[in-house]
Amino acid sequence: MRFSVLASGSNGNAVYIEYGETKILLDAGISGKQLQMRLQAACAREMSDLTAILVTHEHDDHVRGLTQVCKRSHASIYMTEGTYASLPDKAKLDDESRFHAIREEQSFTVGDIQVTPFAISHDAEQPVAFRFDTPDASLAVVTDLGYVSDRQKALLQNCDAYVFESNHDTDMLRAGRYPWHLKRRILGDKGHLSNVDAGYALIDILPESPVEVYLAHLSADNNLPDLAELTVEQIVIDARPRLAEVLKLKRTSRQEATALTEISRARV
Predict the structure, then answer these.
(1) Which domains are delineated in the chain?
(2) What is the pLDDT of residue 205?
């Protein structure tokens, strides 16, 4: 399996995943032009190559470019019925026959990839995160949630890579310029994971084998990449020192895609 985080942040999110001939776009939260540019630059792929488009929830930073991607591909489109019903007008689908409704914890296949959506706590209508499994690798993309439940931790065991939310530093957020109602939303059970939240959740999730964690959805105003990485690493390694040798923390960006990365247990 190979993947690239094309964009990650409050102004746009998208992840590209491929295995064999199966090519998936998870979320389309940046413009169609930017999606095409980043697909070409990082993955040497076109929108027309896509097998499927998956949507986590209806917020603009996840569906901004959905209409444009749909027009430039013949991909099937998967999301929950709640997300579909709540799409903003500019993201409505012209061809409803391409829409496939998915349900939490009901796995389905897209080509050669098994996809498992699971419920998350966020201020959206029926939002989900996703786990992707192939015979030799597993990837989970988990962002936009206020907390990580025991059930979610169980579903996230034994992946080879995680794209995992580390949205804010709580002290920076509390002292920052955001109005209180927005701070309360972010800090709430239907908001976003802090660096500390992410670290403590990962303690219970990460395997003992080599694993890559891409810290995602970092706030431009209430976080710093160095701070996020240092906080998560310190919490995880203090609790599970053996992970120091196998854990690799990676960064994501709003402005550019990560390199197309291969994950495979066969390489370990």
Answers:
(1) 2-262 (3.60.15.10)
(2) 98
